[in-house]
């Protein structure tokens, strides 16, 4: 069995405010892997490759997931 890596999650600066109680957290400390979780559900972790993370962030920046439309 492969050991689960110890991810070191961080929040964006805006989410470090104590008044904000629900933020995405990202860990990039495991080479080749990006891990995501919701601060309200820290036991649920989604992982992807660094390339997949790049594709996702490019799509977000391009507005492909704009929910206001």
Describe what this molecule looks like in 3D:
This protein is of the alpha+beta class and 69 residues long. Helices cover 17% and strands 28% of the residues. It has one helix and three strands, in the order E-E-E-H. It has a three-stranded antiparallel beta sheet with strand order 1-2-3. Strand 1 and strand 2 form a beta hairpin. It is globular. The mean pLDDT is 88.
Anisotropy-based shape: globular
Number of helices: 1
Please give the alpha-carbon distance between the first and last residues: 45 Å
Main sheet summary: 3 strands, antiparallel
From the helix content, strand content and strand pairing, which structural class follows? Answer: alpha+beta
Our estimate of the beta-strand percent is 25-35%
Strand order of the largest sheet: 1-2-3
